[in-house]
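Lab notes, practical 5.
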Amino acid sequence: MKKFFILSLLVAMSMSMNAQITSSQSSITHRTVIQEPQQPKNYTGWNSLYVEYLPSKLGNDSFNGAALNYSHAFSLTQKIPLYLETGLGGQYSFYKKFGTKTQFVSAKVPVNVIYEYEIPGTSLSIDPFVGVRLRVNIWGDTKFEDYESYDLFSDEGGRCERVQVGWHVGLKFRVNKVFFIGGAFGTDFMNFTHDDDKIKEFAVSLGVTF
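Output from the prediction step:
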């Protein structure tokens, strides 16, 4: 009887130890599953369609402008949210002074480097950017009261340059990666007129990304 009791005790201890080992292995396996590393984030580009209001300065003259633009942002790396953006826009600008009206139409190509910062716990992102732009002035004229207008860019009477290259810096706020509003400031490297005047341009933008 004594031998049977000791044998039963040994069997019970063996079963208890085996159960503890199985439970420990299960707990380790469970913890391993929970602590699996997250998949790296996939940074992809986007398209933008937006309008701009462009209050600007040329020497002592102030003028207004508006533009319609399309752009595409390309991801530069999968390590950080850094993008290269380029596109095409059409711009109309004008100002009035002493009974004259000057206006011109331009095509522009921006090239920007953008960093996207997503605000944790929200659907907002902040996109600071810096870049250069090419602007080609397609048409423009100045009209005096009761007089004929003259071409701003003709060899006969014009005194303005057709091509400008400039720089700009700005910031965009995006909501749900769909809607955005932004602002920017920049100047031209090249003169717009033969009087050594450069355009200083402000921009307020509103658009969508897709």
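Observations recorded by the TA: The chain has two domains: 1-36, 46-209. Residues 46-209 form a domain with the Porin fold (CATH 2.40.160.20).
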